[in-house]
Amino acid sequence: MAFEEERKIFSSFIRNKNLRHSEQRQQIMDVFLKTERHLSAEELYDIVREKNPSIGYATIYRTLKLLSEAGLCRELQADGRITRYEHLHNRDHHDHLVCTECGKMVEFEIPEIEALQEKIARKNGFVLKNHRWELYGLCSDCTR
Amino acid sequence: MAFEEERKIFSSFIRNKNLRHSEQRQQIMDVFLKTERHLSAEELYDIVREKNPSIGYATIYRTLKLLSEAGLCRELQADGRITRYEHLHNRDHHDHLVCTECGKMVEFEIPEIEALQEKIARKNGFVLKNHRWELYGLCSDCTR
DNA sequence: ATACCTGCAAATGTTTTGCGACTAA
DNA sequence: TTAGTCGCAAAACATTTGCAGGTAT
Asked: Most CB atoms closer than 10 Å: which of A23, A82, B8, B9?
């Protein structure tokens, strides 16, 4: 999905909720949408601050929440304590392989898993909303 | 696995690391091993305190860490921020279905998944150590 | 004009750590 | 005797919130 298209999605989202198009939201959105890495709030804060050193943490967190609601961002709990935010394109769902040593993340897609999950949920009387599937191990660089 | 057997595992673990068999560790371990629910540190603290009101949070956390290292406990990140600790028996690996409304957790086992995960890891040059697979949805009580 | 937003600082909630006193081996 | 432990309070950490002043519509 193109950058401009995503901008429009966020823009409509803001308008539909009767929120405002502020300078700060634009800046944070721009940086976030141009990034493919899984960012922590702190990393995003650092990058955005290079352009606008007066921005605060609160605005970063508040905007990340909006981006998630708009469907452009997904929250990941991968490493223990901190949350990472992943730029979500309108592509197939994927999961993550995480190196416990250096933190490297590799994405993978197993389409068959979706149906299996549905089946498991249904068998237990659940309506499935989403899932987290993370494999932890050592990447090739870290096994040496 | 029987309670006595697990006690022995912890006991050897303590001895091998040249640690001490303290009264507090015994008490925390006893409560933890007798519980099947996924406990938060706070819940464990509350239960242990009924028997020994002088125990502190730090000791709870420190002992949970030891139980995990000894392989008797697994840390779960299921609900957003807090960690829950699951009493791990030497049984087959299982995963969790979590109700996002009431927090209910159901365990399930899909043995075939293990081989699939190994394959994914290998293909990406990773040595698999463990994984987390959590399905989120609404349980039958909460869909009403 | 009037919501909505912002940055700041303070608050929050969970987990960790430093410390002086205590205790198992 | 000497590491290891304990409970406490303080620190750390990521995230959230209250507020007074600023801004988009």
From this structure: B9
